[in-house]
Write a structure and sequence with these properties.
The complex is a heterodimer of chains A (363) and B (329). Chain A is of the alpha/beta class. Chain A is 56% helix and 11% strand. Chain A folds into 3 domains: 2-126, Rossmann fold, CATH 3.40.50; 141-204, no CATH class; 206-363, Rossmann fold. Chain A has helices at 11-22, 34-43, 50-64, 84-94, 109-124, 128-155, 164-177, 182-197, 216-220, 228-234, 245-252, 263-269, 282-294, 309-325, 340-362; strands spanning 2-4, 25-26, 69-73, 100-104, 208-214, 237-241, 299-305, 329-334. In chain A, the strands form 2 sheets. Chain A has a 4-stranded parallel β-sheet. A 4-stranded parallel β-sheet of chain A has the order 6-5-7-8, with helices on both faces. Chain B has a 4-stranded parallel β-sheet, with helices on one face. A 4-stranded parallel β-sheet of chain B has the order 8-7-9-10, with helices on both faces. Chain B has a two-stranded parallel sheet with strand order 4-6. Classes of the chains: A alpha/beta (363), B alpha/beta (329). The A-B interface holds A 45-49, 76-80, 82-83, 85-87, 90, 94, 273-276, 278-280, 282, 304, 306-313, 315-317, 319-320, 331, 333 and B 49-53, 78, 80, 86-91, 93-94, 97-98, 101-102, 113, 237-239, 241-243, 271-278, 280-282, 285, 299.
């Protein structure tokens, strides 16, 4: 069995770390590239959302690489993601690929998936404590990667040589790639910290502070949002991202009680505008915008795939939030046709606007 | 003076209006409807809504704009789900919030939820009880109004199942003595697949009914199926569609594809409708696999010219008549 999963945030690091120790064998799709999107576009129904197109592209490339089992999460509405599995399976089968399809349903995870996983473990002769230990390790490693990314968000606006943070960051990711034990992870962590703190910084700057929120997939994945965090960082903006792969998992497993910026808090904050929880990240997007306004951020950027059912509801309401809380909000509908120039123009206009706003406020 | 309750002529109006109207009138309210959708309404609605929303919602905003000065209350219920295993569109879940946060000033909204999902269930009868207490305290009167509404709704759906078009079914539904359809003609039948607010709004669907009928065909629609029939059809799929209208669309398409009487299927969808992008795909996948019934997928948007539509429709009907001739000859 050669399982493949779509790219989502740092999940590939988690899966790699896990499968190296206890199996089963995973085929991580090639890094999401323009070719991935082209493939996805070619075979997707025309008006589906952007994540669908990326994920289908991932699967096609993974099947080309020799995967024979596709694993995909699902949901029971109301978002479209719950129908991804049957639509994708039909498309891939019509293309002539042969594969097994596993749908991870949160109501069935215990019954089918964990049991399967356990059988695989026993077949390989790995003890249960070993399995749990590597699960713990994989989680830690993924956490560290996300933490690293958060550090780069904080540092980028201060860097003296533009692009240095990004370069050091990718060096650090390569360094982490070979790490296989908790002990090594600890050493790697201090190495990463020292490397990052060696970046030349100009601490006299006062960068703008912005929050990025919106639909999960496009917020988490730089390939889907055209690397918006790096671009903003290089324009001198300190970015705070509201959604991470680990935070989404933590929310789903209801273990994010102590997180100051948890999704549940955001959902509570949106009550005035959206008394009913609509699902997906709709309420959270509105809630995060409100929380950021209260915390004194300079602006909010909402990212959504064009036509996203849930986020378009939020988008409508965010205009009111922007007025009520007096905070600039940029809503960004992402499509496959978005060119780099469009993004840069819109972002720099938004940043300009906020900078001017700050100046008039200071004087 | 009786309270004026405004009902926008859009979205779920096309499914539940008989029930709403009879119920509200039974409580002594005056029901005020907006006019049929017009071009101005849609442009006004599109002007205030964000561009990502679908056409029916933009039209709905237009209806509210045209109503808001004339009424005391606006009826914008929050339909979350109408059955246990399916949701309505997420845009309906947030509809009152979108309306309240986009259009101002606005009369108070009647925005109680209907929800059959989760722990906090609000069934249909509970919903009408709540709405009723806004207007009178007499619970017996509320119950009677609701029962009368239900009866008319049943007649209305019965007529629709018999193939009576929307407007006619509305007026006939008052009379409970003959809830039956019209006699079938011998013209070839076309199956029309879509949501109620697409099938029945002549402006949004660019008068596709008349266009098809004028070319010598009769029409059967998604609304001619009973709930059980939809469920039976849908159970053939490997996974159930969890949107109420999506279920109806896919279920009716499967029925039409398996029915030799239906010579062709037209699938209506709206640009920017998140669900229809998948429903249409599922429909076309299964229709293709079930045989050679021709399928025409139409996606509607805010462009007004219908030249393209007529060209495609005629080409499609040509294919059907050629197929018919081949079968006969």
């Amino acid at each position: 069995m050669r399982i493949t999963v779509p790219h989502c945030g740092q999940m590939d690091i988690f899966i790699n770390a896990l499968s190296r120790r206890i199996g089963p064998e995973f085929v991580i799709p090639p890094k999401t590239s323009p070719r991935t999107l082209d493939l996805g576009l070619k075979y997707s129904p025309e008006s589906t959302c952007l994540p669908f197109k990326f994920i289908l592209g991932n699967f096609i490339e993974a099947l080309e690489k020799g995967a024979d089992t596709i694993c995909m999460i699902t949901d029971r509405g109301p978002c479209r993601v719950g129908m991804y599995d049957i639509v994708m399976e039909n498309i891939l089968r019509e293309m002539g690929y042969r594969f097994n399809w596993i749908t991870l349903d949160n109501t069935q995870i215990l019954r089918t998936y964990l049991l399967k996983f356990d059988r695989e473990r026993r077949k390989r002769g790995v003890s249960l404590t070993d399995a749990l230990r590597s699960l713990h390790f994989a989680w830690k490693k993924m956490k560290l990667c996300e933490e690293m990314e958060r550090w780069t968000h904080k540092m980028r606006p201060y860097e003296v040589n533009r692009g240095e943070t990004t370069r050091v960051h990718s060096e650090c990711l390569r360094l982490l790639d070979g790490v296989a034990t908790l002990k090594e992870l600890k050493a790697a962590r201090s190495d990463v910290v020292s490397r990052l703190s060696n970046i030349q910084q100009d601490r006299t700057r006062h960068p703008l502070k912005m929050v990025i929120t919106g639909e999960g997939y496009v917020v988490i994945n730089p390939h889907a949002n055209q690397d918006i965090e790096r671009r903003l960082g290089e324009m001198g903006v300190e970015v705070t991202r509201t959604m991470w792969f680990t935070s989404q998992i933590a929310h789903a497993m209801r273990v994010d009680l102590f997180n100051k910026r948890s999704k549940s808090k955001a959902i509570r904050a949106s009550k005035w505008y959206l008394p009913h929880n609509i699902g997906g990240e709709c309420n959270a997007s509105v809630g995060y915008a409100i929380l950021s306004a209260r915390e004194g951020y300079d602006g909010v950027i909402q990212l959504l795939p064009f036509g996203c059912i849930l986020e378009s509801v939020a988008k409508n309401i965010l205009r009111m939030v922007s007025r009520d809380y007096d905070i600039p909000i940029l809503t960004f509908s992402l499509t496959e046709n978005l060119s780099e120039t469009t993004i840069v123009t819109r972002l720099s206009a938004f940043v300009d606007l906020i900078q001017r706003r700050r100046k008039t406020r200071d004087t | 003076m009786s309270t004026k309750v405004g009902i926008p002529r859009g979205l779920l109006y096309y499914r539940y209006f008989p029930l709403w109207q009879t119920f509200l009138q039974g409580l002594g309210c005056e029901v005020i409807l907006s006019t049929l959708t017009t071009k101005e309404m849609v442009s006004q609605g599109a002007g205030i809504a964000v561009s990502d929303l679908c056409l029916p919602i933009k039209a709905y905003f237009g209806h509210i704009l045209s109503l808001r000065d004339r009424v005391d209350l606006l009826f914008v219920p929050r339909y979350i789900s109408i059955e246990e295993d399916a949701y309505m569109c997420p845009k309906f879940l947030g509809l009152p919030d979108m309306v309240a946060n986009t259009i101002q000033p606005l009369p108070p909204l009647i925005d109680y939820p209907i929800n059959y999902k989760g722990k906090k269930k609000t069934t249909e009868s509970l919903f009408y009880e709540k709405v009723g207490t806004l207007f009178c305290r007499d619970s017996g009167k509320i119950r009677r109004a609701y029962q009368k509404g239900l009866e008319r709704q049943r007649n209305f759906r019965c007529l629709q199942r018999g193939g009576v078009p929307f407007e006619k079914a509305l007026s006939l539904s008052h009379d409970s003595s003959r809830p039956q359809g019209e006699a079938n003609s011998d013209q070839p039948t076309i199956g029309l697949v879509g949501r109620p607010y697409y099938l029945n709004d002549p402006f949004l669907n660019k008068g596709i009914y008349e266009k098809v009928i004028a070319r010598g065909y009769t029409i059967t629609t998604t609304e001619s199926l009973t709930e059980t029939e939809v469920n039976r059809q849908i159970s053939k799929l490997s996974k159930r569609v969890y949107w109420s209208f999506g279920k109806e669309m896919v279920g009716s398409a499967l029925r039409f594809a398996g029915d030799p009487e239906v010579k062709g299927i037209i699938n209506l969808a709206s640009f920017g409708c998140g669900q229809d992008s998948f429903n249409s795909e599922i429909v076309s996948h299964h229709v293709r696999r079930m045989g050679d019934t021709p399928l025409l997928s139409l996606i509607f948007d805010e462009h007004w010219s219908d030249g393209g539509l007529i060209t495609r429709l005629e080409a499609f009907l040509d294919v059907i008549s050629r197929q018919n001739r081949k079968e006969k000859g």
